[in-house]
Amino acid sequence: MSDPARSVEFRGGGFVAQRKRGVGLMVFIVLLLLAEWGTRTGFISALTLPRPSDVLLTFQELYQSGMLFKHLIPSLTRLVIGAAIGATIGITVGVLIGLFSLARAGLVPLVAAIFPIPKIALLPLFVIWFGIDEMSKYALIAFGTFTPTVVATYAAVDNVDRTLIRMGQSFGLSWRSIVAKIVLPGAMPGILSGLRISLTIAIILLVAAEMLGAEYGIGAYILQAGSLYDLERLFAGVVILSVLGVVVSGVIGAVERRVLRWRV
Fold first, then answer.
1. Which of 43, 119, 175, 179 is paired with 73 by a 20 to 30 Å CA distance?
2. How many domains does the structure of the chain reveal?
3. How far apart are CA 61 and CA 56, in angstroms?
4. Distance spanning both ends of the chain, measured CA to CA
5. Looking at residue 228, what DSSP letter applies?
6. Residues of the chain falling short of pLDDT 70
């Protein structure tokens, strides 16, 4: 007697990551509860880590006094403008390097020369060139975003499957059509991954720029709190930066899900 028909589980998912909602939030909550317990029981010294509840009260005071947005808005403005300039130029130059041999021969050595330079070390130079106002901060963030974006972009273009390009050529597609329909979509995952790194670097450079010659901003707020050894305010500033990084990562993730739906 034959066995009754039974369904077979689909195994062709291709290692597609499954979204587990709430797991990341639970990790944060557990860590906060452990920190609260440790600081209240004395297991963790109050000189090294403030109570999360005290940091929350600091956030409440910042919000009620209006200082939260007074520091946050200038930082967001600097980050958006500087990162947008650097990422736009970086993607453009990276695509040119990936597509044109002359651009590759002339620009890759230049990018390789400036990529290892610590961008924070160039801050005094940008202050000399652009002044201590906003332009030096925009320039530093843009320059720091530019170099990793260039490297990620032309590497992504290089990694596009050449078989697909040859197939497009065999079907008589024009050069522009191949670039628009094969090269750029194929390079988009690598470009977006590079943007994750670039925008993280932009946040780091934002803090460094605001610590030098900025009256308002998250970096200036952290510097002031650190000079007074005010741990609650210091950790409040660090948490703001952490939340900003999570938001940036979430935005890139949303763009990936929308732009790269064809990968499923």
1. 119
2. 1
3. 9
4. 41
5. T
6. 1-19, 262-264
- Give the range of the structural domain holding residue 59, as residue numbers without chain letter: 49-263
Question: Is 228 a domain residue?
Answer: yes
pLDDT at 12: 55
Q: How many CA atoms lie within 13 A of 105 on its CB side?
A: 3
Confirm whether 55 is domain-assigned: yes
Residue with tokens 């956030």: 59
Provide the 8-state DSSP code for 44: S
Residue 133 resides in a domain: yes
Residue with tokens 């066995």: 3
- Helix, strand or coil for residue 3? coil
- CATH number of the domain that residue 128 is part of: 1.10.3720.10
Q: Give CA–CA dist 206/120, Å, rounded.
A: 10
Q: Tokens in use for 216? A: 């308002």
Reported as a single tens digit per residue, the pLDDT across 215-228 is: 888 888 888 888 88
Judged by phi (left if over 0) then psi (alpha if -120 to 50, else beta), residue 161 lies in beta
Token reading at 144:
């720091």
For the CA atoms of the chain, what is the radius of gyration?
Answer: 24
Three-state SS string across 150-200, please?
HHHHHHHHHCCCHHHHHHHHHCCCCHHHHHHHHHHHHHHHHHHHHHHHHHH
> Does residue 220 sit within a domain?
yes
Q: Which residues contact 227 (CB under 8 A, 6 or more apart)?
A: none
Which ranges of 21-161 would DSSP assign to H, the alpha helix? 23-41, 52-65, 67-99, 101-114, 123-130, 134-158
- Paired tokens of 121: 């070390």
